Automatic annotation (TrEMBL):
InterPro entries in UniProt: Kinase-like_dom_sf
Organism: Sphingomonas immobilis
Designated name of the protein: Aminoglycoside phosphotransferase domain-containing protein
């Protein structure tokens, strides 16, 4: 886990700062002992380029040193900080914590997590997930028609997640640091926009 990294992790502000050494530290937050020996950038989408998101998105192919698990995804989808809105650091931290700390123990349909790190003060983060496009995944959105079966499938997974995590108070007790976004800088920034 990130807490076990000996030196403070310098999180690159942009993709040009990525190195195999940094990616190794990210992967080791979930898969200790795995080493990234190289990577290839396959695709890059920034906020406003055919998508609306709180993150920039990459697709990458990772090369691992011998000994990496055979089922560890080599092609990954990467979520990273977009260039604005440092106030989103708490939101990013919760997402990384969900995937790195909570997701591995849940029996829900969700991407395999490869690794994740976040500095909530600077809102710099990288979340490496299985590239679900390789499984033909369809991502529901407000700008496309979603079938009743797709909506039911999403609601089913949300119900499984909530049944597994219990109440917000129980979840907070077992996962300190993951909190509801009902207070703090992120909520203060977004609440006036939602009224």
């Amino acid at each position: 886990m990130l807490d076990e990294i000996d030196t403070p992790l310098a999180i690159p502000a942009d993709v040009e700062g990525l190195t195999p050494e940094f990616l190794t530290q990210v992967v080791r937050t979930v898969h200790p002992g795995v080493t990234v020996t190289g990577f290839e950038l396959l695709e890059r989408k920034r906020y406003g380029e055919i998508m609306v998101s709180t993150s920039d998105r990459l697709k990458m192919r990772l090369d691992y040193a011998p000994g990496a698990p055979d089922d560890l995804p080599r092609q990954v989808a990467v979520k990273m900080k977009r260039s604005i809105d440092a106030v989103l650091g708490e939101l990013y931290q919760n997402e990384v914590d969900f995937y790195v700390r909570l997701r591995p123990g849940l029996a829900i349909e969700a991407p395999v997590v490869v690794g994740g790190v976040c500095d909530k003060e600077t809102a710099l983060y990288y979340l490496l997930l299985e590239d679900l496009s390789l499984r033909g995944a369809v991502f529901p959105s407000a700008v496309r028609d979603n079938s009743l079966a797709e909506v039911r499938a999403v609601l089913d997974q949300m119900a499984r997640l909530h049944a597994a995590s219990g109440t917000a108070r129980a979840c907070a007790a077992t996962l300190p640091g993951i909190r509801a976004m009902s207070r703090g800088r992120c909520t203060t920034a977004w609440t006036p926009r939602c009224r």
